[in-house]
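Possible regression after last week's pipeline update?

I re-ran a chain I had predicted before the update to compare outputs. Posting the input and the new output here so someone can diff against the archived version. Not blocking, just want to make sure nothing changed silently.
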Amino acid sequence: MNFVAFERAKQGTGASRRLRITGRTPGIVYGGEVEAQQIEVDHNALWHALKKEAFHSSVLDMEVDGKASRVVLRDVQMHPYKQLILHVDFQRVTAGTKLHLKVPLHYSGDEESPAVKIDHCVASHVMTELDVMCLPRNLPEFIAVDLSGLKKGTTLNLSDIKLPKGVTVITRGNNNPVLVSVMVVAGTELPAEGDAAAAAPAAPAGKGGKAAPAKKK
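New output (post-update):
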């Protein structure tokens, strides 16, 4: 994805407030072997870009005063109750420097799995994104996960999926976290044949405690 930014000359709280009134959002670009650069971005364009998943998890092409550079989104500061972006941070990307970013998980196939289709279970997505580290050229926009093999009473762990080439997952505490768990929906368990017979209502007792005779048709 690409976007256009402009170099910002004035700094400070007052200057940023006046900038927002004009429909621009103040920001900064840092990293690499050059000094941090103060920028401003069109607020509406940035607002719509932030709604796209790829803007958060891929390397972006930023153009400032005709010069292009590659960056990743690092931080967005929002107004506590207004639909207003207060500030945005980007980090420069260099080819040989590894990135540490969150990449979304895209699940598919759960409706066709034996757990859901046959046993009427529910596939609960425990994790929706992963912390990854990789070189910029290996950064995936998302990680696809096929759930068509899920079975009742199982879980899908990190070790069960194939990661893109050159991508390492950063885990904290648990080296093999659960990504998806299979949950049985209450009320879907069918009774066994013997249990069904035992649960059948008994015929009402007649006089003397004997079972009432069956009525003739």
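Follow-up from reviewer: compared with the archived run. The chain has two domains: 2-92, 99-184. Marking as no regression found.
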